[in-house]
Amino acid sequence: MTEKRGSSGRGQRDLKVRVKSAKGRRLSSTLWLERQLNDPYVKRAKAEGYRGRAAFKILELDDRFRFLVPGARVVDLGCAPGGWCQVAVARVNALGEKKGKAVGRVLGVDLQEVEPVPGAEIHQLDFLDDGADDKVKDWLGGKADVVMSDMAAASSGHKQTDHLRIVALCEAAAELAFDVLEVGGTFVAKVLAGGAEGALQTILKQRFDKVANVKPPASRSDSSEKFVVATGFRG
Ligand SMILES: C[S@@+](CC[C@H](N)C(=O)[O-])C[C@H]1O[C@@H](n2cnc3c(N)ncnc32)[C@H](O)[C@@H]1O
Question: Tens digits of per-residue pLDDT, 66-101?
Fold first, then answer.
């Protein structure tokens, strides 16, 4: 990985790859493949050793809001395949590679099994299970400076259902954040624009000094995904 702070916004100009339709492959799969092959973030993720293009979303959010500082204790909800964990490990100095800087900690959870990320502690867990937040609190064993969630339920194909599911995931993540965040801490979560996120915004505004809604450049423009970044937890 060749991560540098502030290095997340480089542009890249390349010739477009065209994918021919093939017998047995649906048009949607051909278009998906073509988009992947032409996506500069997919290429950069491969070149820079990240497990997915999602890594650039947290890099861009952190370049702007600066919450992944050396020494920070981070909880990453919905962390598979591990791109956000990779970024967090490097930026909070979880491996102690930045000599003379504080050493941070990264705890990730996901429904799916995750290939180990050096420097991160990862557990397989459905965060919506009863008692899941208590398990995370036990593993954490104290306070966190950052709670971040990129959780997304598998698409049902029904936009409104998907929206309500992601709001539920986001609210569960916020509940954990209210319990474990250190005063001054940061909460970052993926939401889908679509109307039902208003209640969450109201609660966050009561508990944090600032609440921003951001669509980082790495988030595809044709997706309704955006990120809420709440900073300055009031306790
Ligand atoms: C977009 S991916 C996360 C990508 C990750 N940030 C990265 O950089 O590699 C969303 C993840 O949320 C996880 N997820 C969805 N619902 C979950 C739940 N109830 N509990 C835990 N993880 C969940 C999914 O398994 C999926 O791996």
Answer: 999 999 999 999 999 999 999 999 999 999 999 999
**CA R_g for the chain:** 18
Predicted TM-score of the model (pTM) = 0.88
User: b or e along 200-230 (b: 16 or more beta carbons within 10 Å of the residue's beta carbon)?
Assistant: beeebeebbeebeeebbebbeeeeebbbbbb
For the CA of 82, the closest atom of ligand 1 is: 9
Spatial CB neighbours of 101, under 8 Å, sequence gap ≥ 6 = 70, 71, 93
- Could you tell me if the CB of 55 is within 6 A of ligand 1? yes
pLDDT at 11: 45
Q: Does residue 173 have a pLDDT over 60?
A: yes
Residue 150 labelled as part of a binding site: yes
| Confidence label for 3 from pLDDT (cuts 50, 70 and 90) | low
Query: Do the annotations mark residue 130 as ligand-binding?
Result: no
Substitution candidate for ligand 1 out of 76, 110, 133, 169 with most atoms within 8 A of CB: 110
> pLDDT digits over 131-152, tens only?
999 999 999 999 999 999 999 8
Q: What are the chain's domains?
A: 20-49 (no CATH), 53-233 (3.40.50.150)
Dist. CA 137–CA 116, nearest whole Å: 20
Q: Kindly report the protein residue whose alpha carbon is nearest to atom 8 of ligand 1.
A: 83
CB-ligand 1 contact for 84 (6 Å cutoff):
yes
Residues recognised as catalytic: 190
